[in-house]
């Protein structure tokens, strides 16, 4: 773990605040993601407010009557999906426009009595929120935006009640190292480092406009700073936070078209084409806070 970045406030290069850069990216895109032509399709979500996939649904289990904290919730569709299933949810995000969408959806769906949303980045959450939760949850494109996964797990562990658990499902770090514009499996090439120890992977420039949800949208804030966290760092981070790892699964499916050649299924998950040697596209981890936990609650 000695190679892992430990200073989350200065990993984006001289004079570059990674948090402000990334927040500007998300602030601009939240209204686009809530609008027409977005893969979030909020009209369909209003008709059936449950966007959870089989991976997280089966591994988190029944949440009826349980409290759930959703870290990095964006516009709240997954948060409200858990509320639809009976959880009492708290969604956390650092983007005010995203939270405005989430709160509006909660009102429209009649879920405002069991769903609240708090503005905060993950690392600053202990200053903004009290209490403990049965489930601390994050999924699909969450930890790559933050430099220190060990600190992420310390915060997550702080908010899990003793006997509760932290659950994370995300893109597999092995898959992140390849170019995401590969039209065929043969076009895959290693493009990014597996160990991002010398600062972030910076995507900079006006030609990187739009987003995964609305690729053709014209956008002004197009710089981002991201990190690849190796599986060993992720597992060790959970252990070092005082959690007991119960499951670690690697999956050959993922909820978005990470590469253009992936094949979509009726379950909303994308898979490798037939005949291609398997690589992991995503992973999931569940780590429980021991019932007798006496941690210091460090950030």
The count of strands amounts to 12
Give the distance, in angstroms, between the N- and C-terminal Cα atoms.
17 Å
Q: Give the CATH superfamily.
A: Vaccinia Virus protein VP39
Radius of gyration: 18 Å
> Which regions are unreliable across 5 or more consecutive residues at pLDDT < 50?
1-15
Largest sheet: 7 strands, mixed
The domain count comes to 1
If strands are numbered along the chain, what order do they take across the biggest sheet? 3-2-1-4-5-12-8
Strand content: 15-25%
Instruction: Indicate the percent of residues in helices.
Output: 25-40%
Note the topology:
Layout: H1 18-33, H2 42-47, H3 54-60, E1 67-70, H4 77-84, E2 88-93, H5 96-108, E3 115-119, E4 133-139, H6 149-159, E5 160-171, H7 173-176, E6 201-203, E7 224-226, H8 231-240, E8 244-251, E9 253-254, E10 263-264, E11 270-271, E12 282-288
Parallel strand pairs: 1-2, 1-4, 2-3, 4-5
Antiparallel strand pairs: 5-12, 6-7, 8-12, 9-11, 10-11
Quickly list its features.
299 residues; alpha/beta; Rossmann fold; 7-stranded mixed β-sheet; 3-stranded antiparallel β-sheet; 8 helices; 12 strands; globular; disordered N terminus
